[in-house]
Amino acid sequence: MACTAIVGINWGDEGKGRMVDLLTESFDVVVRYQGGGNAGHTVINRYGQFMLHMLPSGVFRKGVVNVIGNGVALDPEHLIKEIRELQNKGVSITPENLMISERASLLLPWHRQLDALEEARLKDQKFGSTKKGIAPFYSDKYQKKTVLAGELFYPEILKQHLESLREWKNLVLTGVYGAEPVSEKEIDDWLAQYCAPLKLFIRDTRSYLLEAHRQHKRILFEGQLGALRDLDYGIYPYTTSSNVLASFAPIGSGMPGVEIERVIGVVKAYSSCVGEGPFVCELFGAEADRLREIGGEFDGHKPHRVGPIDLVATRYGVQVQGATEIALTKLDVLSKLEEIPVCVRYKLNGREMDSMPFPSILGQCEPVIEKMPGWERDISGIRNWWDLPEEAKAYVKRIEEAVGSVIKWISVGPERHSIISRG
Ligand code: GDP
């Protein structure tokens, strides 16, 4: 288990949080390497139910060290609120079990504001941003127009740096969007309220991880979102602004050159998608409503888009993630269906295809659907592969064959113990 990554194979929300929470038992260190406050991992355990956005999902396990790597969009306001929420529920978060890379760039107060302003400007053509400032943050990071967490230890240099960035960003805020400029006081307050309390966690995590690796500590890289949202390999431009792939984990963590031996790809037993963009297997009407209802596919009251499992997209996701094994989640959700639809291929201009087309033509593809018999009984209490109904086993094997990777875990409920391990 030396270096392992857990990553999403689909559009995100596959249930990675529950898998990380389950498997952290076998790891010493859990590392987040990309993304920020834009996607949440749901974890249910003895402390309660949590939606972790920025903290690695190993924070609940005693003895596990959690690292926020240099590739993460470090949002101090979001992170400090998340830390306090967990601490208030009895979870211990100290510099011993949480470390933040001094090379992580800070998501600055104007990034969230710019995200919302740009989505509002785009109107009908919006990308479905979560408005957490992620796209403006990453574009500024690559323009070298944000600051590093470690700069908090050099207040004079930081002040000058932030002042020049604020001056530049106010030109954009006022000139392009006609918005209010950000004042010096707002920045000072943000530094005092949200950045100062994070300082005790910030350190050289690269050296820490290198030493941990040398000592054969077991390191788990926790990916956010899914392969189809990857900036380079996803359904561009409906992607996120960072690289979610396991291959990026060593770079975004501070361990360039380190080999990841195992990549656990998390696949959902059906498809769901939050946000805009082509979603070939999408269901509509009553069929969609039913699946959404039984799968609990809502963000508050906002419905997620849903569909049957998409074998074309899932096979592609497995390939680009380089998944060596699969965890299949939410199989229990399909227990109520008489027949299980499966998107086996795509059709474009009368021609069928089983590999992922170029993103620009994805929106013109139609799904080719086949139906498999359902099992129509509750499987949430099952813990052994052999006890699963034959129809459920056939469904799992069908996915396994189509994506070319072994399904090692089958999750049949959101709780930590609701899992079938195939050894
Ligand atoms: P992540 O972003 O990939 O970590 O996924 P989420 O945290 O958004 O998980 C999606 C939802 O599915 C959460 O509400 C989980 O509690 C729930 N979930 C995860 N695995 C299962 C499962 O096997 N069965 C059921 N019924 N729910 C699950």
Q: Short description, anyone?
A:
The protein is of the alpha/beta class. It folds into three domains: 3-104 and 201-265, Adenylosuccinate Synthetase, Chain A, domain 1, CATH 3.40.440; 108-198, Adenylosuccinate Synthetase, subunit A, domain 2; 268-320 and 331-421, Alpha-Beta Complex (Adenylosuccinate Synthetase, Chain A, domain 3), CATH 3.90.170.
List the defining traits of the structure above.
423 residues; alpha/beta; Adenylosuccinate Synthetase, Chain A, domain 1; Adenylosuccinate Synthetase, subunit A, domain 2; Adenylosuccinate Synthetase, Chain A, domain 3; 3 domains; ten-stranded mixed β-sheet; four-stranded mixed β-sheet; 31% helix; binds guanosine-5'-diphosphate
